[in-house]
């Protein structure tokens, strides 16, 4: 092994420095800095060698270190799973309103529920000197946000928790809400109630299914359903199969508003009437839910308050030193509300 190869291997076992990049590229540290800043004073050949060294050593520019040392940008970052989802759009609006009252701007991006994308977006935000990050985490068992590079800025999770020390999470009463909605269906006399969810890996669906299951267990009833109905086609196929089978369900509890909309459409195409043939309660309200025929009974979660509370927690931490933050992960849980309409069987709503 050559001396330079040995140096390269050693550098890659720890976080690389600009000096190590310069040594590998056979240039000075000032040249590396000029390449990073896009200076025209560096020849294409030299710049190519520097970029190759940066890639090989997985070097992170020093601007990230400057950000972690406390450079004030008056900005925060927000990472959501999807920019097309009305739920996250509402949360983003609430976060931005709080940020503006503090004189801060907000950088918004999406992870698409990809662990790698979430990490790269969060890392990019550090390079932009954000002073804190709010995010709805990807459904991964281990988060890359436990990386030490994130330890010096406050991070707040919302809707789904992050099990990382000193990270605060703002959630809603998922289990209690679904339990309450299922109990309401039981009070209407339903004994065969199926649960529909779109992912068994999502914290929210897991907790909502657990609340539904507990409500049934308390009265000796069996939990049944599908936790992987993540498309309109799958909801239709599942509904068609169980409703045409033996011991067909007389009611459904939908794990989120997307599933509720899919089920309404499926029952329409199957020629079934709500609630005469099948009753429905859904988790999460949405625009026009009260205009459906019949209007949808829901567990309403305080979406605007969820985003606003997450932002308030973040700015409270920005006012304190990192050593004053709780050592363990902390949680704030917001109440939900049962909104009675006609889909559950209530006649006088």
UniProtKB/TrEMBL annotation:
Pfam family, one: LacI
CDD domains, sorted: HTH_LacI (cd01392), PBP1_LacI_sugar_binding-like (cd06267)
MF (Gene Ontology): DNA-binding transcription factor activity; transcription cis-regulatory region binding
Superkingdom of origin organism: Bacteria
Positions of the HTH lacI-type domain: 16-70
Lyase listed as a keyword: no
InterPro entries cross-referenced by the UniProt entry: HTH_LacI (IPR000843), LacI/GalR-like_sensor (IPR046335), Lambda_DNA-bd_dom_sf (IPR010982), Peripla_BP_I (IPR028082)
Entry keywords, A to Z: DNA-binding, Transcription, Transcription regulation
Parts forming coiled coils: none
Name this polypeptide is given: LacI family transcriptional regulator
Originating species: Silvibacterium bohemicum
